[in-house]
Predict the 3D structure of the following.
Amino acid sequence: MTRNSSASPSYTLAPLPGTEALFSGPSLPPATPLAVLMTVPTYNEAENIEGLLDRMVALGPEYGVLVVDDRSPDGTSDLVRQYQSRREAHVYLLERRTNRGRGQAGIDGYRQALFMGVPVIGEMDADGSHAPEDLPGMRASLTEEAGGVIGSRLVPGGREEGRTLSRRLLTRAANLYIRMVLGLPYRDATSGFRIFRREVLAAVPWDRLLSRGPSLLQEMLVIIHRTGVRLRESPITFRDRVLGSSTLNRKILLDSLRIVLAFRRRYGRGVRPGSAS
Ligand SMILES: Nc1nc2c(ncn2[C@@H]2O[C@H](COP(=O)(O)OP(=O)(O)O)[C@@H](O)[C@H]2O)c(=O)[nH]1
Ligand SMILES: [Mg+2]
């Protein structure tokens, strides 16, 4: 379903091979064109989604959100639709009917955002751990020579709040492992808060990725790095999820260690000869 009126381009559902989905937009799209579109995968985020939308909309009319929901039983998508009918804001919803999962939701979100032609496209969690207020700083770090910006907990100025010592150590150990195995120069390769130029994302082979889960975050970085594109890191304040429950468990953790080795087999460890530097 697509509802549209007035000035803004009339966005429609992108071709999403292998996924059945519905797409909707605001009843009253703002006259200001979309400059930054953040994709937000959601599964049972009814407690968090309206607060996130309010904070995103407060950044200005050129910022938009694309919620990518997997039929959350708690009615997350109903809340988004209500928001679309009452606020003049770039709030879009992709309701996936098949292939539930964080990895495929992320892929479909990026495909939909690319199809919409927005110049800067990113992703963040719905659970409040990523602060919309950090986005303008990330956008300011997107200088001409950068292909994107990682919102980083582990560069000077970056912070973590409300996290146990074991979670903080886990983040650091995972990043050390990823840096060593994949030869990536980034301090926070596990951060799920990032923005990219659309041309950088357009070069990602979305239908040939290995990831089916959260490891998509690292697979995207390794693919982009191998093409010679460089990202910057900009400090963020990360807050551990306050409401709802995390999908991270021991099995996901072990799977993600294994899949990093699979990335190394497929993509190698260094920059490909012949690619730009
Ligand atoms: N569409 C979709 N989103 C998901 C799925 N699993 C998790 N998410 C969302 O992905 C984001 C990250 O998940 P979260 O539970 O916060 O993981 P953590 O940050 O690693 O603890 C949140 O916004 C979740 O609602 C899923 O199967 N489908
Ligand atoms: Mg989270």
About this structure: The longest strand covers residues 36-42. The pocket of magnesium ion (ligand 2) is lined by residues 125, 127, 129, 241, 246 (CB under 6 Å). Residues 1-7, 273-277 have pLDDT under 50 and may be disordered. Residues 21-267 form a domain with the Spore Coat Polysaccharide Biosynthesis Protein SpsA; Chain A fold (CATH 3.90.550.10).
